[in-house]
Hints:
The protein is of the alpha+beta class. Helices cover 34% and strands 21% of the residues. The protein has six helices and eleven strands. The strands form four sheets. A four-stranded antiparallel β-sheet has the order 1-2-3-4, with helices on one face. The termini are far apart. Residues 1-5 and 141-154 have low confidence and may be disordered.
Amino acid sequence: MVAVKEITWEEAMSPDFGNPARIAWREAVAEIAAKAKQTLPECNGRVDSAVTMVLAGDVELLEDGKAQVASQSHGTTQYVVCNGTCECKDFPRAPSGWCKHRIAAGMQKRATALAKQKLAQCDGASNGQAEAPSPPAPAQPHASPAVTRLPLPEAPASANCYVTLAGRQVQVTLRDSDEQRLLARLEALLQRFPAEAEPEGESAPPEGWCRKHGVQMKLNHGKDGRTWYSHKTTDGWCKGK
């Protein structure tokens, strides 16, 4: 059985590029960041910022399941990530609440576990033991959902519309995680493809309309069941003919 080596901050940030702990740590961070970008493509910029904070040692995992992340813009400010929430101003407007501090906290936890597995595999190989797949990590029912996994992105808001493109009517489906942003995208799409104006032409006159004098005639009923339209003029009665 191979013992899992604890990674210290000094080893992970060692200037010795050949240090196994440093190599395992940076490889783990890179792998977790790549998966985060695939899962949250709309947050790629925030993922890059989270990588910077993690590698700089600005993330601290607390014993109560919370995480403390240092601000990049204010040297003395720290934000607490707990139960899927963050204290920063970007959290309310970030897609599904995935601000860079929340991403960094999840990345720190997952990269730490992955780096320990890499070190254990290296230790086993150096001791002549066959490398075997690492067993799954034990379930942690009380762990904070904010840092255990990055959920697959969903599209709670969507809209369909038809536009005319190259003379053909095409159905376009827009999906987004924010309703207001979806409406703004839909408005921009409709402005790009405005509705075609109907050809101007003379509309059919209403029934009983006299084209000759441009007036509405009166409907008359004869004793024999006949009906006709007519109106009185200075020259007599006109039937619109």
